[in-house]
Amino acid sequence: MARPDELVFAPLGGVGEIGMNLSIYGLGNRHQRSWLAVDLGVSFGDEEHLPGIDLIMPDIGFLEKERKNLMGLVLTHAHEDHFGAIIDLWPKLQCPIYATKFSAALFEAKCAAERNAPNIPVTVIPSGGRVDIGPFNVEFIPVAHSIPESHALAIHTEAGTVLHTGDWKIDPTPNIGRPTDEKRLRELGEEGVLALIGDSTNAVRDGRSPSETEVARTIIDLVKSAKGRVAVTTFASNVARIKAVADAAKAADREVVVVGRAMERVVQVARETGYLDGVQNFRSPEVYGHLPQDKVLALCTGSQGEARAALARIANDDHPEITLNRGDSVIFSSRTIPGNEKAVGAIINNLILQGVEVITDRTHLVHVSGHPRRDELRDMIAWTRPQLLIPVHGEALHLHEHAKLARAAGVPRVLVVRNGDLVKLGPGDPGIIGEVPSGRLYKDGTILEDAKSRAVVERRRMAFSGCAFVAIAMTAQGELADDPEVDLVGIPEKNRAGEPFDDIVFDAVMSTIEGLPRARRRDPDALGESVRRAVRAVINEHWGKKPPCLVHVLTV
């Protein structure tokens, strides 16, 4: 009798971290499996640790090798950490993509705005619909989140049903879109859920996330009571928040001016897909300066302190159309993503120095998370009654707390995994049965580099300690043809005693060359290595740091 197919799961990104989500499900045996990918997202570079790196993406080398067995890519929703890597990585996979209407439209707009984006077809599935993708039957179950048309995926297979939650929360009054479909989730629980692969972002927070409707009420009160100009910044993709701001402006008899390309793009897609039906038309930035101060509201990008976004330019007083003055107000209808605190703090401080009133979620309910707190996690477990729970979408602490909560809620099996772990879900006892290659890719300008990239490693070292460049011209007889050239970049001009570093390094180069036997002076590699070591040593002696040193030896 033939053994039944195994259902396996492996996260290639998004576990032990927040962002860069990519999960894969496999059906078959260890010799041959059909694969289904869920989401393909990015996380963002950190200038301190990854200077010059714009985006970080999951390494898809495993899927490239399995390309002929990759049945498709399904998107849970259209946030960058779930779909931001598709334009760069899809050409390596060229698999079918499945998404609902809003996600597909936002992706199309993103491609249109990108120079030389490949033509990437997307199959649109209705919200609540089902589609066969190879041996997988995938059902899109509506859930509330901070962007329209977020979906949990019920992945139905012969080996059982997996519920991949995506990003979700329970919000009976989400302001836009459908609430989390409790009825269908309870039905799945009745039918039997083999495994719940669940969002852990807020697993450390007790209680329940407040509703978008409560935020909308706060924003209306704040805008109506404001005296001068008002600017509101939020995540561009949060259409419910955009609608709340529009409703507040209407209640206060203000015009909404949209500032920032990302915000303009989302507004256009939301109108095309019907999510802003009945909402007044917005104005372009050129009219901002012509409207009375108490009749205008600027809806801006830049809630995370992005240097090129609208709010940073306004705070630095270098935006061509939008200005704020003493007595005006800025509402941060967002939370600061960890790692962005310095950039956001700098904007807030600049605004305050201009006399602008700054309102954040520290003092007013102007933002709510799109992720479930602990009571909501308990509800999901109670509704679906999974045999196995695997926490994903979180750092180590979030995964640990979600796992602990699941065990306390009576889930029979709970597994905490890492990126690259290959997990057997069923049939039979679940567990980690192997590992698949995983890692990171860095987008450096227009080039994709792997994590071991020389450019990334060396740039990090140069950011810490600068770089020394030495050029030496030697004759065939091993004599200097001219004085060496020394160029120091990012290194102090003088040491503690006030001596110029250029002179210190030049002297070290000269004494090293003169101290070498003629045979070594005639060997460019040996000469270069001796000078490199001497330069690094002398700089370390006078500064306490060893910068990279590049030596170019030319024989004339």
TrEMBL record:
Acetylation found in the keyword field: no
Manganese found in the keyword field: no
GO molecular function, one term: exonuclease activity
Family annotation (InterPro entries): Metallo-B-lactamas, RibonucZ/Hydroxyglut_hydro, RMMBL, RNase_J, RNase_J_2, RNase_J_b_CASP, RNase_J_C
Keyword line: Cytoplasm, Exonuclease, Hydrolase, Metal-binding, Nuclease, RNA-binding, Zinc
SUPFAM superfamilies named in the record: Metallo-hydrolase/oxidoreductase
Residues covered by the Metallo-beta-lactamase domain: 21-219
Cited PANTHER family: RIBONUCLEASE J
Record-given protein name: Ribonuclease J
Organism listed in the record: Bradyrhizobium commune
